[in-house]
Amino acid sequence: MARLFSKKHEKKDFTGPVLGGSFFENLFDHSPEAIIICDREERIIRANRTFCELFGYSEEEVIGKNGNDVVAPTPDLMREAVAVDELMWGSKEKVCLETIRLRRDGTAIPVELLQVPFELEDGTLYDYTIYRDITERKNAEYAFRREKVFFEKLFEATPLAIMICDPKGRITRANPAFLKLFGYPEGEVIGRACYDIVTQDARLIAEAREIDKRFWSGENIHMQVKRQNKDGKILHLELVQVPLILDQDTMMCYVIYRDISQQIKAEEALKESERRYHAVVQDQDEFIVRLNTDGVLTFVNDAYCRYKGMSKEELLGSSIFDDYDPETAERLKREILTFLTPETPVKTSEVYNDLPSGKRQFVQWRNRGIFDQNGKLIEIQSVGRDVTDLKEAQEQLKRLNVVLKSVRDIHRLINSEKDPTRLVQSICVSLVVNQGYPNVWIAILEFKNYLATIFEAAMIDGDTPISERMCRKELNRACRKVLENPGVIIEKEVVPCSYIPLLNEYPDKYSMSTRLEYQGHVFGLITVALPKEYMVTEEEKIIFQETAQDIAMALYNLGIHSQGGVKGKCD
After folding, report:
1. Structural domains of the chain ordered from first start
2. Whether 461 contacts 545, CB under 8 Å
3. What global pTM score does this model have?
4. What DSSP string runs through 117-139?
5. Range among 51-65, 381-395, 492-506, 543-557 with highest mean pLDDT value
6. DSSP 36
């Protein structure tokens, strides 16, 4: 029959009823596609098993009925279906389109429709229509579009200059900050070799090629480089290159540039003269200090005073190491005082401070040793800058890769797992393994005050997740709060609960919850445990709620009704 579909309605000598003969009869009934055969008046004369299963009818119920009345009963769908019939009979050609048709219970199914006319030798006209269920494909397309929007917003909004290159070094994407930094319109960048855009100097091109070799050999790149904008101006930049994994077979190069020209300018000004040093450094946003070999501050600029929240008088004469715990202070002394030599006069170090707001601030220091004529270290000048934004951008990228992998895995489960019990248990384990939540539990609502089924997964004392399943428990206050609110609920304390045993292993965690809702149906709720220091972003809340909606949609498609529970015995 597949061969017949590829030909232009050639005449076939069907004996007896249409599809007479055991070969065609068997092929028709066992086709994985939903098929009906209609006469010239569009009355159904045959419907195969797949059609009946897909639309919820028996063959006896549809025989003799108008096919459009069966699967396109609404006015809009009926107008479309009649137009397809008219186009097919008018052109005597097959018609193919993607559309919506309705099951017996009124639920919509996205389908790919192929309608083909044919004629028997006695001149009788018929047509056959094939309906292919494309629900899974549409769901995958929706998930992909949502991921793309999230990534686009993150990519476009960051103040850091970013480009994405393929393995051949061609630029496939460049964000507005990148175009502004290098002075190009987007049309002159996309598809070009990255070396042609970021510099015109042969020496710098060779350096960039060598860095790329290291990157594609598996090394993550984080260093300072010189590049040029379109006008040839030298740019002093901090370069970060990390892999961006799109799928199992595709990896791109994600390049971040941060303009540090002002920092380099400050360092060069220090070399020229003490007078110019004071004039320049006071205007810098970077923190600039000088200290002797005992770590005692001999100079601080205004930015450093603002950073410390102290006056120059309070800072000068104090030791820079007094601000840190003994372990960090010892490490800094070793790096600054021991590793600085005439041969290696510059050393970069990184420290962090916990601010009163609870936020962690990262500061990168570039320490340069000043030596006497005998090569003895006599002073250190240090330029520091707040790299918290860069750290957060790197963490966001890392988190994005994790979230995208987790979302892909969940949609793979939704599209492949047809058993609701295994589906929900697998989703719990996937969120623990792929997204790093210490504990995940999903509860399916039975009726107003009871949970029919509770699924739980956690990572306890090892790398293998443990899963549990409980049945029929009364709703507690926390569960009711989640079910009564449509948004994401953050609870700063995890309330001990007898029917969630693995969650009780995390008394020092807090939780994020939302209800499982799709098309007005509430199926239950999902809760994940989070470490106390974990900061949930608004983007993660959105993805968490959308994931919950996807789970609810999957339960809906699998026939689990809200407040109906997941059937099956509890372990």
Report:
1. 2-133 (3.30.450.20), 139-259 (3.30.450.20), 276-391 (3.30.450.20), 417-557 (3.30.450.40)
2. no
3. 0.39
4. EEEBTTS-EEEEEEEEE-HHHHH
5. 51-65
6. E
